[in-house]
Amino acid sequence: MRPRLQPALYARIALLLLPVLLGACAGPGAPRGPLSDGPPRSDVDISAIPDAVPRAEPRSRYGNPDSYVVDGRRYRVMDTDAGYVERGIASWYGSKFHGRLTSTREPYDMYTMTAAHKTLPLPTYARVTNLRNGRSVVVRINDRGPFVDNRIIDLSYVAAKKLDIIAEGTGLVEVRVLNPDGETPVTRVARNDPAPPPPAEPPGAGFIPAARAAPAAAGDPQVYLQVGAFADRGNANSLARRLADRLGTDIRIHPAQSGARTLYRVRIGPLGSVADVDRLSARVAALGLESPHVVVE
């Protein structure tokens, strides 16, 4: 017959297990909320922190499944990172996750040049450039995320500070994978990397006027939400008119060559801020359309 544990002993065991259980809840790949994090309590001299140095590494034993699911959405890990270029919105994560395990089972250190990406192989080295001020850093991607709509990369605190996006919380960036061997691969463009500029259209063509969103400042990159791409111009026009009626903002149709055919891309914008991107993305989803994706030109 087993001896019966006393209530006081049960309580002690529960207290001992509590940190373990809490840590498991925030394990690798756990979603990170945008309002639940922050910078360290004291300022950091970022000039003394070097960029990551690309070197050949094997794929991590952890964090590289064929696919994984977070919040009901499935993400497929890429077979290769060669020639990868992506433009979009970056976020950052800091003190809340400092010391916790990343997806590669390495402790997250907000004072080193690392980042998280949803689908690139781990680890991957990339140059991240702030498209508004031209600053760039090299990071080692060793974590999964960010699991927030319209974000393409989650930077460590110091990487974000070097790019000067801490105050706003987000920034428009280009992510360009670096080859440790120093070779320049043929560029493979990500889904939301800008397409070549479309040919000039006559006034009014592909444009439905409506209440205008705040324009981006002169010289700044232009941000759009792409909500569809059609081989038939009529279908693109129909969707554009529907969106203009419902959203009350500018809808543009951007023709672009895809192989031997022309695709007509329906885009909202240009948009003046990341807040506008998030707000209109939610409104598009409420209309029952597929999630739009961010295009930065």
How are the SSEs placed, and which strands pair?
Elements: H1 7-25, E1 67-70, E2 73-76, E3 84-93, E4 114-116, E5 124-130, E6 136-143, E7 153-156, H2 157-163, E8 171-177, E9 188-189, E10 207-208, E11 223-230, H3 233-247, E12 251-258, E13 261-271, H4 274-286, E14 293-296
Parallel strand pairs: 3-7, 3-9, 4-6
Antiparallel strand pairs: 1-2, 3-8, 4-7, 5-6, 5-8, 10-12, 11-13, 11-14, 12-13
Features:
alpha+beta; Alpha-Beta Plaits; lyase; 2 domains; 5-stranded antiparallel sheet; Barwin-like endoglucanases; 297 residues; SPOR-like_dom; 6-stranded mixed barrel; lytic endotransglycosylase activity
How would you summarize what this structure contains?
This protein has two domains: 144 residues, RlpA-like domain (Barwin-like endoglucanases, Beta Barrel), CATH 2.40.40; 90 residues, 2-Layer Sandwich (Alpha-Beta Plaits).
Q: How many domains comprise the coordinates? A: 2
- Tell me the major beta sheet: 6 strands, mixed, barrel
Could you tell me the number of beta strands?
14
The third-level CATH topology of the largest domain is: Barwin-like endoglucanases
The number of helices is: 4
As a percent range, the share of strand residues is: 25-35%
- CATH superfamily membership of the largest domain, which one? RlpA-like domain
Calculate Rg over CA atoms: 22 Å
Distance between the termini: 73 Å
- Mean pLDDT across residues: 81
> Which residues sit in consecutive blocks of at least 5 with pLDDT less than 50?
1-35, 183-219
Helix content: 10-25%
Apparent shape: globular
CATH architecture of the largest domain: Beta Barrel
Strand neighbour order, sheet with most strands: 3-7-4-6-5-8
